[in-house]
Design a protein that fits this description.
It is a single chain. The chain has ten helices and 15 strands. It is of the alpha+beta class and 409 residues long. The chain has a domain at 12-53 and 238-277 and 285-408: Beta Barrel (L,D-transpeptidase catalytic domain-like), CATH 2.40.440. The strands form three sheets. Strands 5, 6, 7, 8, 9, 12, 13, 14 and 15 form a nine-stranded mixed beta sheet that branches. A three-stranded mixed beta sheet has the order 1-10-11. A three-stranded antiparallel beta sheet has the order 2-3-4. Helix 1 packs across helix 2 (120-133) and helix 1 (94-106) packs across helix 3 (141-150). The chain is globular, with a radius of gyration of 22 Å. 47% of the residues are buried.
Length: 409
């Protein structure tokens, strides 16, 4: 998994292009992604590329201990540094910034990485929350009041679980040919494991823990200060295939490639309301929008869309959701658009370019999926699909199921 603090850069050809699955491979026991969604993993079979693990509950409360308010020094954003945050007065700083991001994250309005540095994704998440509750865009008063009540302790100490040893491989290669030989695409450090577990990045863990503590902690022997958020429990993911659901299959997702955000609704968003034509006028008059609660909006998350030539705008259906996908890496297809016979099957895991879940659309080869690089969401394009942070991507089948409409616009 790429982290800015480690300067681990993937080669340019590793961008996810979501190529189709070769016909000559169609009889394989496991399907490499992306493919016809019905053939990612054979029905009734778990993904054998990842060691079998029983589903587990979220991290026990004993592993996470809330810290007193004011006990963690939160670095303030550096002055003079260019930010992508819209011009909104009084964006919170310090603990309040972390508190706001946690509250939005837990409300299914993803702010991106929880790092105490509100940017455009935090502001977009505030606007989504405000839309649901009938407040004006950019109004921070109501959401901050709710955040302070809901998140009294924004930081906690979290034990590094002993099981982290099964998910960390410091020797994981950056070379695709070597990755194809690995059992799984593991985290490359305990710091990566803990940062993704608590919806942040290694850089923020370094800021609040210090380099010595961050890099020296060992599984089962120590703890780190983390955002006090419900953890992303990688060990609970077993390769499950999600089926249609009477309610969630009727929902509607809008992937906004301009705002870099996916928004999920109970049904298709209503069309613009227009008033009766004014007397003597030949054009309808738009009714001025009122800040009324939009309870149809269920969730929103930041995304990285595919390149314009690959994204395939339009209205599609969600065909499947499968955990722990295998990725088909075909350098020729990525660079020229032509399939070759030299493709590699990259095993599943949190450091896979398609992350820990694939949500395939009825447009072959296109889907919403996780990523190895959560800190690049919204900042670096994939070649063809729609990427989310793994902790957001895993929520997709809790919100929409096969049969739901997905609009790419």
């Amino acid at each position: 998994m790429f982290r800015k603090s480690l300067a681990l850069a993937l080669v340019a050809s590793s961008a996810v292009a979501c190529p189709a699955f070769a016909a000559e491979e169609s009889k394989a026991a496991l399907r490499a992604l992306p493919v016809d969604p019905s053939e990612i993993t054979p029905e009734g079979k778990a993904n054998s590329a990842v060691p079998a693990a029983p589903a587990v509950a979220p991290a026990p409360a004993a592993e996470i201990t809330p810290l007193p308010v004011g006990s963690v020094k939160v670095p303030l954003p550096k002055t003079g540094v260019k930010t992508d945050a819209p011009e909104i007065a009084d964006l919170p700083k310090g603990e309040d910034a972390v508190r706001l991001q946690i509250f939005l994250d837990q409300s299914n309005f993803g702010p991106g990485i929880i790092d105490g540095k509100p940017g455009r994704f935090t502001v977009q998440a505030v606007d989504s929350w405000n839309e649901v509750h009938g407040h004006a865009p950019g109004d921070l008063g109501p959401v901050m009041e709710a955040a302070r009540k809901t998140v009294p302790h924004p930081f906690a100490t979290a034990q590094v679980p002993k099981l982290a040893t099964k998910w960390v491989n410091s020797g994981l290669s950056h070379d695709h040919a070597e990755q194809a030989k690995a059992k799984q695409m593991s985290y490359r450090s305990v710091a990566e494991f803990m940062s993704e577990r608590f919806h942040t990045d290694v850089e923020f863990l370094l800021e609040i823990n210090g380099a010595k503590n961050t890099w020296s902690v060992k599984p089962g022997e120590g703890s780190l200060i983390v955002p006090n958020v419900k953890p992303f429990v990688i060990e609970s993911i077993t390769g499950k295939r999600y089926e249609a659901d009477p309610k969630m299959s009727e929902r509607h997702a809008v992937v906004d490639t301009k705002k870099n955000q996916v928004r999920i609704f109970e049904g298709a968003p209503p069309a613009l309301i227009v008033d009766e034509e004014e007397e003597g006028s030949t054009k309808p008059v738009l009714v001025k929008a009122k800040h009324e609660p939009n309870t149809a909006l269920v969730a929103s998350f930041p995304i990285t869309p595919g390149k314009p030539q690959f994204i395939h705008l339009g209205v599609w259906k969600l065909n499947n959701s499968v955990e722990l996908p295998v990725w088909r890496f075909d350098k020729s297809l990525l660079e020229t658009g032509k399939r070759s016979n030299d493709a590699l099957n990259i095993p599943s895991g949190p450091n896979s370019p398609v992350g820990i879940i694939w949500n395939g659309l009825s447009k072959p080869g296109i889907g919403l999926h996780g990523t190895a690089d959560p800190e690049t969401i919204g900042r670096a394009r994939s070649a063809g699909c729609v990427r989310l942070a793994n902790w957001d991507a895993i929520r997709i089948p809790t919100l929409i199921r096969p049969g739901a409409t997905v609009e790419l616009r």
